[in-house]
Amino acid sequence: MEVPMLQGFKNFLMRGNVVDLAVAVVIGGAFGQVVNSLVADVLTPLVGALGGVPDFSALKLGPIALGKFINALLNFVVVAAAIYFVVVVPMQAVQRRLKKEEAPAAPPEPPEEVRLLREILEELRKKA
C-alpha cells in the first residue's frame, strides 16, 4: 500500500515540466559561469584597458563600491544580450518558419445537406 502523499510527490516528479525545469536550472548555472568568466576575464580587462583600470571592483566613490556595480551591470548586459541573440532570435525565426509552413487550409467542403439548403435559400431569395 502506497501513501497518497508519496504517490502525489511521485506524480509531481514524473511530470515533464519538472524535468525541463531541472535541466534549465543546471544549464542556466553553467551558462552563468561562462558569462561571468567572459565579463571578468575578457570584457572587464578590455574596457579597463581603455580607461587604465583593468579591475572595476576597486573603484570606489567614498564608501560606495561603484566598481562592483559596474561589474554587475556589465555582467547583466552580457547575459541579456547572450539570451536575446542565442535563444530569443533563433526561437522567433523558428516560429516564423513554422507559421509559414502552416499554410491556411481551405475550409472543408460542406455536407450535401448544407449545400442543398443554401441552394434552396438562394432560389427563395430570387423569388422574393
UniProtKB/TrEMBL annotation:
The keyword Ligase does not apply. InterPro entries: Mechanosensitive_channel_CS, MS_channel, MSC/AndL, MscL_channel. Keywords: Cell membrane, Ion channel, Ion transport, Membrane, Transmembrane, Transmembrane helix, Transport. It is a multi-pass membrane protein. PROSITE patterns: MSCL. It is found in: Cell membrane. Pfam families: MscL. The chain crosses the membrane at residues 12-35, 69-91. Belongs to the MscL family. Homopentamer. This is Large-conductance mechanosensitive channel. It comes from Thermus brockianus.
